[in-house]
Amino acid sequence: MKELCRKLVTGALVCIFYLVPCTLLQAQEHSYAPSDIENGRGLYQANCLGCHGNDADAVEGANLSTGRFRRASSDEDLIRLIREGIPNTLMIPKTNLSYGDTRAIVAFLRALPSGGALVADEREVRIGDAARGEALFFSNQTQCSACHGVNGGGNLLSPDLSNVGATRTPATLETAMLDPIAEVRAGQRFYQVTNLQGNTVNGLLLNQDTHSVQLLREGERLASYQKEDLQNHGFIPSPMPSYLDVLSPDEVSDLVAYMISLKGEE
Amino acid sequence: MNRNPNPFVTHEFTGMEKIMKCALKPLISIIFSILCLQSALAQVTPDRLLNAENEPDSWLLYGGDYDSQRHSELTQITKANVADLELQWVWQNRAPDGASQKFEATPLVVDGVMYTVAAPNNVIAVDPVSGRLFWIYNYTPTLDARVCCGRVNRRLAMHGNSLFMGTIDGKLVKIDSRNGKPQWMIDVAPPELGYALTLAPLIIDNKIIVGPAGGEYGIRGFIAAFDVDSGEKLWQFNTIPAPVDPGSETWTDAAQQAWETGGGSIWQTGSYDPELNLTYWGVGNPGPDWNGDSRPGDNLYTESVVALNPDTGEIAWHYQFTPHDEMDYDATQTAVLADLNWQGEDRKVMLFANRNGVFYVLDRETGKFLLGEPFVSVNWMSGFEENGRPIRALYPTEEGTFIMPNNQGATNWYPPSYSPVTELLYVPTWLDTFSVYTKRPVEYTPGQQYVGAFPTMAMPALGVNAVNQRTPEEGLGAIQAINPQNGEIVWRHVMNNVTDSGVLSTATNLVFAGGREGHFYALDAETGEELWRRTLGGQIASGPMSYAINGKQYVAISAGAGLFVFALPE
Q1: CA A252, A253, A257, A258: dihedral to nearest 10 degrees?
Q2: Residues in chain B with pLDDT < 50?
Q3: pTM
Q4: Does the annotation count B65 as an active-site position?
């Protein structure tokens, strides 16, 4: 509920900043109609989610959330794969799906990179100038590039953004800048351990179980700890700062424009 | 259960008796020899199965015994020495095909040989002391095979010198235990319509009893018995009654068609009480899973436990845990049988920790509801009517409904254990999980999933990834000790990840279990304290078991693609 409130407040602020003077742009950049994607969402839920999961990344070797498909190089390949299945796997032929339904699922999968399978933030947000955004990204004012890499650079504790435009919606990117702790995905969560001597280490959580925790700690070093050797351990907020009071609405829109231009290697 | 009265009676012989004894001695000797020969030829007789509890060195039935208590009477491994347990051997299967081929089988050990099944349907016979292979029988299921939740097999059954395996393409195979050669194979149900056999068959007398998985494909479930020699079908109990059958009044759709695709799958082995001559089976979800609009009514016998006469397949009683289920709370958990002084009265009871989050005690003679207590956070029901019917609180909606426990359930097929020593039931548990259930239109297409919209879940249903980056709020696992007298949680051993592991208890008050993290534990059965742990490097999704060879006790568990066996050092 707290997170929901935070999102609502952020959304309200965004509206106040941008709604009146700005041109609203459609977030959707894919060639599929929003109705196709929405239809595909329901079809995905009914036919695919059980194995592939909420975020379409639950099957090892078949992560559908990246926009890249090992066994399919085109949308027609994907449609064929879904309808014909993969022998000797749980991926059975989906002969119940019409071509149109299968195409809708592909539309949904193509839209998946826009922020998560079932919770994509499709709010319309203002998109500024990408060139100005790039300059900001590498400026001392924002110091984005001190942490985040784009085709190189950055550090390993922060998400590489080379492909972020293909994996997030503009609204998701804007929220990440203004309210970075609103949603932190698995794989980007930070963890803190304090040993029995009182020394504290923070790091990116790579893995944990009942008895141990594995981090990529500050200094980009792998570290594993036995929980019985720790006096405290647990999740901590993301170190990503909020730019709500740092950047103007125009600057935020420029950064959003730059980031959605980052599509990685085709 | 006392089902093995002492057959030896001593008394003084009279003179005539002595003469008769002398005269009959050679004849008796011949008869005895024939019996011995038959015994040698037929390793596992119905009597051995009936008296499995008196044979703790072996592991003859899925749950160790017909009562499915998964409790070992072996006493060599104790609280005092369990910390010394050492790995004896590992048998490595080929790497499983992702999450779809979990190593779920409980091994069978008889007369110095271990038999088990590597997913999906490859049978192996190994030396239980060294792990060396005697033979392997590879079966490749047809491409028609379709299973919602894993190309898996939970165990073999054995009768005489034959092993019986259900396959994921709907077949029942009889295999010679001495050389791994198939003896016959029969079609139980059509795989192209979603029927699959993943359970361990149950042998009672000369019958082999199975039922099909496929609740996500609009099957019409059944429990069927086949002759162990000929494979002839002897009877079939349909878990979804036809319009003329008793129970059909719980399928009230106007068109009277919903029953044809009504689900009611069977994918966990039944239990058996020889004194009552009743066999007990949990029945799976109605179809479609998450939108019950097309199947108004309670939808018997889905989400029920049914008590059947194993000679005829006739139903004696049933109890429905989740009437008109729309959360996929398959009641295919293990029905554990125990004879207890329950709240001051000697009773033959059934202990049933259900996927819907409630622990039940039933009178297994009559099916009477005795107790129902949640063992995790539950919000789909708010209590019970006097007759044991749950008071329903929530249903899926078009907007989405937040319901606890989640779709995978508070527990599942993972077999629990009951210890007659501590009188506690040990239940693998997913703690306080939730799903958002959304009602969507759904149509039946033969052979395709017939479910509705999959509910949301915070963790993968099948435990695909070794990595766990979830927060505690997104799901924890536990082994919980439940007191059958009142449903109270006596202790709880919490794990950072959820668990698909079964549980074994021993006469020495140990509990063995594991989880998705790949740790295998020995816990104190009285307190839950961890006494020993080994990391096996792959998720544990099977039931532990114990056996002894030449006086040495072993504990076996599969994890990842391997079968691991532990014992005390020499």
Answers
A1: -20
A2: 1-14, 19, 22, 32, 34-39
A3: 0.82
A4: no
